[in-house]
Amino acid sequence: MKHSFIDQYSDRDSFMHRLDPRSKFLVTWLFILAVTLTPPNRGQVFVFYLALIMVLIFLSGVPILYILRRSLVIVPFVLLVAIFLPFFKGGEAMGSYNLGWGSLTISDYRLQILANLLVKAWLSVLSLILLISTTRLSHLLEGLERLHLPRALVMILSFMYRYIFVLVDEVMRMRQARDSRNFGGKRWWQIQTVGRMVGTLFIRSYERGERVYAAMLTRGFDGHSRTLNKLSFKRADAYFGIGFSLVLALASVLSVLGG
Question: Is the pTM above the cut of 0.85?
Fold first, then answer.
């Protein structure tokens, strides 16, 4: 199977790719923080954030359609939150719809909540996709450890990256074995079969994890992740981090003064 679906395009050579992972991670974190703290009625500030992230995407050389397609991952979560909008009260009613079992009233306040969530989540996801698309995950994990993030969290992410491909291959083999035995029958029987596959996959993953951990201990594992690459924080990383932070600070000040 293809083993580059997580950090695809991370092997390209561009200004964004050459930056240190620590600088890109801190900038991404500041961008998400600024987007989250911006009041929902600051439409011009959100447009500025979008223009800013688009400039970075242009500098990275990553196809814009690839990033936009992957950003659609937020749609199910936004729809899930939209289910609870009828429970929010307040605002001026814009219309009422009879659903048979009850009525649904649409107000400007509820629409503002939905739009605010959608815009902030989409901008945050765009920045995260850009970070992953321009940074090898192994380099990013080393940068996170250099930033003194919890060691257990970094190791969990490292194992996830290393073995998610193994688990996907295992699922594909189980699916092929299922289809070769003429997978069909009634719907309830199909659900039972999928449930058994999930249980089998969990048991195999647990056993594989125990074997891998035992093998690591025999080879002197001490809780630290070691890689062959050496990170170096250059002047370009400092200039990029400082400049981007100043731009975000200016946008935050304008959002406050706009009130």
Answer: no
* CA angle at 171 for the pair 165 and 176, rounded to the nearest 5°: 125
CA distance 220 to 136: 26
**Residues making up the chain, counted from first to last:** 259
Residue 134 is classified by DSSP as T
Give residues with Cβ within 8 angstroms of 170, minimum separation 6: 201, 204, 205
Q: Return the sign of the alpha-carbon dihedral for residues 186, 190, 195, 197.
A: positive
Please report where in the chains the tokens 């025999």 appear, as a residue: 218
Three-state DSSP class for residue 41: coil
Task: Tell me which DSSP letter residue 181 carries.
Answer: T
Beta strands at 93-98 and 103-107: parallel, antiparallel or unpaired: antiparallel
The pLDDT of residue 56: 92
The full set of domain ranges for the chain reads 15-257
Residue 187: pLDDT band by 50, 70, 90 thresholds? confident
Tell me the chain's radius of gyration from C-alpha atoms: 23
